[in-house]
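Input sequence (308 aa), recorded before submission:
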Amino acid sequence: MWPPVPLLPVNQTYYICGFSGDEISLHNPEPATAYLCTESKNEILHISNEDYSDVRDGLFNLEGNRLLELTDDAFNSQGARVNIAALPFANKGYPNSCVFLSSFDDKEELSTQFILSSNQRNKFIFPDLAIISYAYNSVTEHTYLPGFDMYTSSATINTIADDGQPESTAPLLFNSAFQNGFEQFARSLADQNSGNLFDHDFSEVDSRVRMVVITLLWEDTVNGKVRWEVMSKPQATIPDFEFGTSVNTNITLVEGIEINLDVAVLNFSGELEALRREFQKGDAGNVYNDTSLLKGAAVDSFGIEVSE
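Predicted structure, token format:
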């Protein structure tokens, strides 16, 4: 996290956006400092007046532990208003929806903005500084069931044109094929005698589906916090894992069990192993800025947590 930035008065009738959390009014800002949570070397911040007749941004270098000077002259590029209402889940029919706006150049992510449906302030991108921008739009529901909580979400990633208009990405539909695939997955999860860890078939849900990701999380007294992630084809049988003596599986107490299932549409036409390698490029702290997988992406997710 970048050190706190004093919110010196650029213009006290303006708002500033780009810090962690929502935008901040510069009229008696509370708190008087703001934070940047980013691993990038540069960050876009922008200011806007109340009626958006003046919206400008600046690109700020974050290298070195120094004070950022937020002067009016530093904001010198014009923004394009994003048509948030054109996103699949951003209308009044989805009161619990949220939107992330992310902008990139060819080296790093330059800007992230988080929008809840209750926030009526407009949002902007800045084509003069960023090569490409995306809108991640999702809606989530929480269901309480005996012994556990279930979270379901549907999300789309929409490329934003330089004029602020999102390209429409169709969400995955929870159709009969999706329901059958989920029920098959749940049955395989409950069957301890099948000889397999998971069994699923989401191949008929949508021709765009490229990958299914299953994530197991728990904490035990032997291994501490554990995360297993399995990437598979839309239709697959995952066998039981055997670790020999490399992992201590003599566990008597397991806590915080979570199971997540993601059915994903990705901009990729190759084989699964090649797709896995693309994901691995961004692991272990590597710098990986090819965002082409995100174009037209969509994902439906199911999360199950054991209630405490």
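Checked by second reader. The mean pLDDT is 84.
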